Every structure is written in C-alpha cells, then in structure tokens.
C-alpha cells in the first residue's frame, strides 16, 4: 500500500486541514481509556461521572492526544513528525457526543533546518468546543540539501 | 497554602513504567484511537522508514505512566500525591484536567523501558470556576528511556474542585 506524503512546500499558511468526525460511544470512551491504561472511574463508570457533576463518562486526556495525533498524521501521512501538542480542554466529550475536528496551518517556517508547520485545531461538540489545540509538525521537503 | 508551597518545585521520585514498550500495547492504542499510521503497526513499512522499526505513537506518553491497578504499589509519596491529598482533605475532592502540553524529543521503540519523574510547578489560590471553586495545580513530567535519554515531557494543569451545590 502506498502512503501519502505531504511535503512542506505543498502547504500554505491559512490552509484548512480536512474536517474529520468521530462518534463517541461508551465503547469509544472505555476502549480508549483502557488502551491508555487509565482506570479512573470517570472514564468507565457513569455513576462516578454524575457524582463529579457530569452527565456521563467522557474521553480522558490521553485520548484527546491520541485523536490529535491521528488527525495530524492522517493529514501529513506517516512522514509527518509531531514535535509538540498543547491542549486547552473545555467541555468534556461525553458518551453519545459527536466530535468534529477541524484545523488550519497557522504558520510555516524553517528552524534549525527543520521544515515546520504550526497547526491550530479545534475539536467541537454540537454546542461548544471540547478543546482547542496547537501542534508543531515537521514535514519532509522536496529540496535536497 | 503554606503546606502546599512546601511541595512545589521539588522533584518527585523516578518511577518505572509497569510495562516495556511493546507492539501489542501500541496496537491496542491504535485500535482504540483508529490510527492507521503504518509506522505504528505495519512492520514492512516501518522497516523502510527513517526509524527502521515500528515506533510508538508519540502521543502515548501518558499511557506509560499510569500505575498498575494490582498488585498495590508502595505509595510513591511524591509531591503531586501530597498536594492532591491536602486538597482532598480541604474538600476539593473532584479533579479534572484543564490544560496540557507535550513535547516529543525521541521515538520509543518496542522493548524500550520508560521511566518518569515530575515536579509540581504551581498551586493557584482558590478560584471560582464553572464546575465549582477550586485550585489549579500545574505539574511537569519528564519521560526517559532505559538509556536515561529524555524522550518527551508533559505539562499538566489540573483543577481540584468542590462540586457546586
């Protein structure tokens, strides 16, 4: 199978990343929590979530990182190398929600020979954002050194 | 607050991840996240990549650091535990993560052993939030491989709050 490669030269500042969605079911919340080895009751026990003032179990933070990583390298292809991600977490993504992911190239630059793009992204719930994030990704270049 | 200050900017103990990095752990992560990046699960592709092998998704950093459910581990008595216990005792018994960042410095390969330590950088004064009154606690985690090389680090801001009546 051929994998796509997004070259640094083929991106531009302001460019939108393709939108993606993910249905969040109880299975999503629990399977992602277990895959991240997080047994905190808020991510598998609805009673614990209600006691904490929430309506249902919700995605844990490692999962938001996991979704962000997937969102970024689905766009760049496997040669995109994520350097950093920062997240501002707002409304938890609950079982039953649909998460819509969107983003754009905020900045394109070369630093210490690395061809980098800064991405700003938002994971949205129907009424408000689940989180906003920023990431830096190194991309392959068409110019050989 | 004085007691809380005593625990800030003190390094916690070095903690070893319960498991080494493995293809199975990586695949379980990719299965749940629905991440098809071939660097993580396609041996043929990964061998031809610049890494020459399967690597773990960099975003798995936190997955290496959760303690085992069983058998019980000896309490680490780290500064973060101490801060959380103090805040629990003061009635701020709920916890939620509000902000976080990760930097990825080196890839992790199957067979690598991760360890980490952390320090609490700041505990805020009591603040009003939509969830209830609480304190924001900021901690920084540093992750290393078995060679002692830093593979990544993470900042975590946690709100310890009291559910609004």
Question: Characteristics of this structure?
Answer:
heterodimer; A: 145 residues; alpha+beta; 3 helices; 5 strands; elongated; B: Thiol Ester Dehydrase, Chain A; 2 domains; six-stranded antiparallel β-sheet; 5 helices; 22% helix
CATH class of chain A: Alpha Beta
Query: What is the first-to-last residue Cα distance of chain A?
Result: 28 Å
User: Whole-number average pLDDT of chain A?
Assistant: 96
Biggest pleated-sheet summary of chain A = 5 strands, antiparallel
Query: CATH H-level name of the largest domain in chain B... which superfamily?
Result: Hotdog Thioesterase
Main CATH class of the largest domain in chain B: Alpha Beta
Overall CATH architecture of chain A: Roll
CATH architecture of the largest domain in chain B: Roll
Overall 3D form of chain B: elongated
Outline:
The complex is a heterodimer of chains A (145) and B (165). Chain A has 145 residues and is α+β, with helices and mostly antiparallel strands.
Description:
The complex is a heterodimer of chains A (145) and B (165). Chain A is of the alpha+beta class and 145 residues long. Chain A has a single domain (15-138), classed as Roll (Thiol Ester Dehydrase, Chain A). Helices cover 22% and strands 36% of the residues of chain A. Chain A contains 3 helices and 5 strands. Chain A has helices at residues 26-35, 46-51, 61-76, and strands at residues 16-23, 81-89, 98-111, 114-124, 129-138. The two termini of chain A are 28 Å apart. The mean pLDDT of chain A is 96. Chain B is an alpha+beta fold. Chain B folds into 2 domains: 2-19 and 67-161, Thiol Ester Dehydrase, Chain A (Roll); 22-55, no CATH class. In chain B, strands 1, 2, 3, 4, 5 and 6 form a 6-stranded antiparallel beta sheet that branches. In chain B, strand 5 (132-144) and strand 6 form a beta hairpin. The longest helix of chain B is centred in the N-terminal third of the chain and has 11 residues, at 23-33. Chain B is elongated, with a radius of gyration of 18 Å. The chains are: A alpha+beta (145), B alpha+beta (165). The A-B interface holds A 1, 3, 22, 28, 31-32, 34-39, 51-53, 61-63, 65-70, 73-74, 78-79, 82-89, 92 and B 18, 28-29, 31-39, 45, 49, 57-64, 66, 69, 94, 96-104, 131-132, 156, 163-164.
